[in-house]
Amino acid sequence: MDVNLSIGVIIEDVNSKRKYRIVSLTNETCTLCNMNTTKFELILYSVADICDLISENLLIIKPNEKEIFDINMLPESAKQKLILKKQMMNEILQLYRPSYIGLMGKTSRPELKEIMEKHHVKKANFWKICIKYFQSGFKDISLVDKRYLGSNKGKSYNLSAKPGAKSEYFESTGVIKNDEIESYYEEALKDYKSGRQKTIRSAYDKMNLKHFSKVEIINGIETLVLLPESKRPTIRQFRYYVNTHMSKEEIDRIKTSAQEQRNNKRLIVSDVLKDVYGPGDMVEIDAVEADVSLVSELDHNKTIGRPINYFMVDVFTRCIVAVSVALDNNSMLGLTNLFLNLADDKKQYAERFGISFENTDVWPSSFIPRRLRVDRGSDFKSKEFNRICVTLGIEKHIVPGGSGSLKGVVEQSFHQMHSQQNVHLENYGLIEKRHDSNHHKEATLTIYEYTQMIINFVLFHNQQYDKYYHLTKEMIQNGIEPIPAKLWQYGVNKYGYPRPIPVLEQYLYDLMTPVKAKISRRGISYKNLWYLPFNDSELAREMFSAGTKKIPFEVRIDKRDVGAVYYKRGNRLIYAPLNQQITGNADYAGMTYKEYEDFRKAKSSMDAHGRVYNEQLSANLYAINESIVSSSKKENYSDKTKIRENREEQKQLTSKENNIKQRFVSINDNTIFQEDKSKNITNDENVLTNNKEDYGDYDSFQDAIEAFNDEF
Predict the structure, then answer these.
(1) In 10 A of CB 198, how many CB atoms?
(2) How many beta carbons lie within 10 A of that of residue 30, not counting itself?
(3) In 483-537, which ranges are E strands?
(4) Under a CB-based contact definition with an 8 Å cutoff, are residues 188 and 207 in contact?
(5) Cβ-based neighbour number of residue 189 at 10 Å
(6) Tell me: the pLDDT tens digits for 113-159?
(7) How far apart are CA 322 and CA 458, in angstroms?
(8) Distance from first CA to last CA of the chain, Å, rounded?
């Protein structure tokens, strides 16, 4: 019986109904966290024994919960608390992995106390956080106050008095922090950061003079005096705000210089492995334009230029753990492609390009790195990438510009890639630094074929012996060869597997871009496209309540596909495709947002020309109407008597003018009607002539009519 064990899986004891979460897994042992207790309880167990118990149906595997949440929907204070908790838990996992058993027992742990003091967390609160995090399988949602996830919805907690001990010398000191006070703190903190000579005291004094002072007349002179201590913050309150919103490293960098801090740090760091503990602890990310020109997959005779390669390389093992081959340079699309590939099953990914390999350890995947190192590229500095890093709980380290040696691992990977590929690409699109290089004319490979070369290089690189890798004494004693794939296995056995992706849906949701859509009775609209989910009854109620209004509604989009939007309902991820019932809406399915934007621009151009056309048309309409009205002017007023008789007379005249006969006459083949018309006209004339001759001698018209009636 095949048993699929992984970190985060829940195992239930059939007899006792106790549940245990797998929090660590190696080749021989795994660590279980007891979920049916309020205490922190870890159990070390043999993998073989667990598999035997599962095969004997004494233990059963329970499905993992897939709760998601949106960090951007949290209040700013709760968001900052979550970030700090995630940083603290990452340090704990790094310190006590792989088994985490070191957290058990009552022995003294100075390093644990140091972490608590660093994050200003009391011991009791720390263990509550630890218990929830481990029992959830390292899910970030366990670190969020349930009030912000829908629990206790509608309740508010407003302080009516300043917390803390009362002053011994004054009736009251300090103020209750609210949004206005916090804005003053932020302004003062910005002033504190603005110069090396600025101090907390000077920033505090400036804040008091600007926001917490008044002018009084003392001895006939206008004097600026501070408000009473009960109506302004204390220096202690402001200092606490500064210390909780700035790390020691930030303060050092501001009060010295970034260059000085970097140089001081580099005096301590001997190589890139310094302070790197195991696989996934630190990765480096960078992008490079490949030295080759490609052709289009749609037409192999059309050149499309250079591809852009993004690499993510694990510093401890030198493993390339994720790649992206696309045409997006300095783009969040290329960068998120890299993180999507990090979560992909690499075996399936390679098979998409016709490449297969058996040993899955050659290309690790499905983990979240603790830290990453990048340069100052616009994509790496963007707000969107900052949001992703914060959401995933990843520390971002930006190296100074022009300092490629500070991320030399990924730079070396690019160098090896080019040296391996270029020998095959000569005369096939290789870009050479020569004036007579004909790379665009010689381009042969498509992006599909070039991706095959990249995958082939990754598999080669991860299995290559690296004689320049600095092996430790322990590695040499255990015969660990400096091969990235083997170093990965060694690191996992020693330090534990990196932080896994507990819920793939949450991970993918975090990588998507948040945008502001609208809800109305037609559904969800974004950029004139309409979306409608299949399984959200609550949305139907919101649509009904919105009516003709458009209510703001946050959704997530994948810029690679305009065909759907995603949003969170409770702790579920809702998929909302394009509504095919709206005419023309589904025509854009399968397009990227860039393709759709091109259509929108074309429509905007048509609208602009249409506006000018309508203005000319409207002017002509006005001129003709004005001419018609002007030509009908007369000198006298109309007679308003006998309106009903006059209206009836005009009504009958208008009816005669709209008769059907005249429409028959207008048809080309109307000979019969024309002949009939001529005959009728002739007969009518004879009748009139005869009448004139027969009745012309009567004394009056009435006498003639009576005679005519008598005759017929």
Answers:
(1) 16
(2) 25
(3) 513-520, 523-526, 529-531
(4) yes
(5) 18
(6) 899 988 888 988 999 999 999 999 888 888 988 777 765 444 444 55
(7) 9
(8) 113
* Alpha carbon distances (Å) from 124 to 34, 40, 129, 385, 460: 19, 11, 9, 34, 50
Segment (H or E) for 215: strand 213-218
- 229 DSSP assignment: G
In 3D, which of 132, 64, 12 has the Cα closest to residue 500? 64
Residue written as tokens 């095949």?
A: 2
pLDDT > 70? residue 712: no
Which residue type occupies 46?
S
Token duo for residue 16: 């006792």
Alpha-carbon span 667 to 686, nearest angstrom: 28
**Is the bond preceding residue 63 a cis peptide, omega within 30 degrees?**
no
What is the DSSP code (8-state) at residue 437? -
Residue 42 · residue 31 · CB < 8 Å: yes
Sheet holding 371-374, edge to edge: 320-326, 308-314, 282-289, 371-374, 395-398
Distance CA 382, CA 162 (A): 39
Q: What is the pLDDT of residue 487?
A: 93
- Closest by CA position to 313, among listed 331, 288, 333: 288
Distance of alpha carbon 556 from alpha carbon 554, whole angstroms: 7
Q: What is the pLDDT of residues 295-340, one digit of tens each?
A: 999 999 999 999 999 999 999 999 999 999 999 888 899 999 999 9
CB atoms within 10 A of CB 128: 14
For residues 441 and 302, what is the distance between their CA atoms, to the nearest angstrom? 9
In 512-657, alpha helices (H): 537-546, 593-631, 643-657
Residue 42: which of 32, 51, 52, 50 has the closest Cα? 32
Tokens for 517?
A: 């859509």
Residue 322: which of 377, 368, 364, 291 has the closest Cα? 364
| Whole-prediction pTM | 0.66
Residues across the chain: 712
- Percentage of the chain lying above the pLDDT 70 cut: 86
Listing from the earlier edge strand, what are the strands of the sheet with 523-526? 529-531, 523-526, 513-520, 551-558, 561-569, 572-577
| Dihedral pair phi/psi, residue 551, rounded to 5° | -95, 135
DSSP codes of every residue in 235-257: HHHHHHHHHHHS-HHHHHHHHS-
Asked whether the beta carbons of 205 and 234 are under 8 A apart, the reply is: no
- Which strand ranges, in their side-by-side order, compose the sheet holding 10-13? 42-46, 29-34, 19-25, 10-13, 59-62
Nearest to 137 by CA among 40, 32, 282: 32
Dist. CA 433–CA 450, nearest whole Å = 21
Q: Within 10 Å of residue 147's Cβ, how many Cβ atoms?
A: 15
Return the number of other C-beta atoms located less than 10 Å from residue 120's C-beta. Answer: 12
Report the 3 state secondary structure along 55-99.
HCCCEEEECCCCCCCCHHHCCHHHHHHHHHHHHHHHHHHHHHCCC
Q: Express each pLDDT in 368-425 by its tens digit.
A: 999 999 988 888 889 999 999 999 999 998 886 655 555 678 888 888 888 888 888 8
Nearest to 20 by CA among 49, 42, 48: 42
* SS3 call for 183: helix
